[in-house]
Design goal:
213 residues, alpha/beta, 6-stranded mixed β-sheet, 3-stranded parallel β-sheet
Length: 213
């Protein structure tokens, strides 16, 4: 996720914030170790005065004595209750635990055969071309192996590709969607369940946390 460690501008809104959307994320500045004094929260709205794409606010984790213990990490979805007494930071009074869904129950008696899972990781193009030949070769291998589940890890349109800045045939998002659609149609025809894991190196999209390194 996006990170920051220092904020020098007051935050918008009223002096009390009952809850912060769970779409917000805790942040800390890149290359600086996360510390109680530099934790901040970044939202999805742009802060016009800062020139950044998001609006971030410093979190005062020592504001309330009731908050005796906590655990935060960079990029973590965070739901909190706090107050804004000065307009410069958010005094955290409570950190809510976001519920995690339990995995579905599995009846092993109904599992009559082995589960075949195939996993592949991008990028799926050569460094000197945008031709997705590697992706199509993978799909031919999938057709031959016929796994029950195909898990594809990004990136599909790699931000670190040497020629990505000069690509102009379509938008990055359209290029990404065309590649994903090709895989999806292929798997649908073969009755294979497709799982796509996002990558922070997708050039068209904001980083999503957590993702594989």
């Amino acid at each position: 996720g996006r990170v920051t460690a220092k904020l020098s501008v007051p935050i918008k809104g009223s002096t009390e914030l009952s809850r912060v959307s769970e779409n917000n994320r805790s942040v800390a500045e890149t290359k600086i170790r996360l510390h109680p004094s530099n934790v901040a929260l970044v939202g999805l709205r742009r802060a016009e005065r800062s020139g950044s794409e998001t609006d971030a606010v410093h979190l005062d984790l020592g504001f309330s004595r009731d908050l005796s213990c906590y655990s935060v990490y960079s990029g973590q979805p965070l739901l909190i209750r706090g107050v804004n007494p000065t307009g410069c930071s958010l005094g955290v009074m409570e950190i809510f635990q976001i519920p995690i869904s339990k995995p579905p129950a599995i009846n092993l008696d109904k599992c009559s055969a082995n589960l075949h899972i195939m996993v592949a990781c991008g990028p799926y193009t050569l460094s000197n071309s945008h031709d997705p030949t590697g992706l199509f070769n993978l799909l031919r291998s999938v057709k031959q192996s016929k796994p029950h589940v195909l898990i594809l890890l990004g990136p599909f349109v790699d931000s670190e590709h040497p020629g990505i800045q000069s690509y102009s045939e379509t938008t990055y998002e359209e290029l990404f969607q065309s590649r994903v659609n090709s895989v999806s149609e292929w798997c649908s025809h073969l009755s294979i369940k497709l799982i796509i894991v996002s990558s922070w190196r997708e050039v068209h999209h904001d980083p999503v946390y957590p993702t594989p390194p």
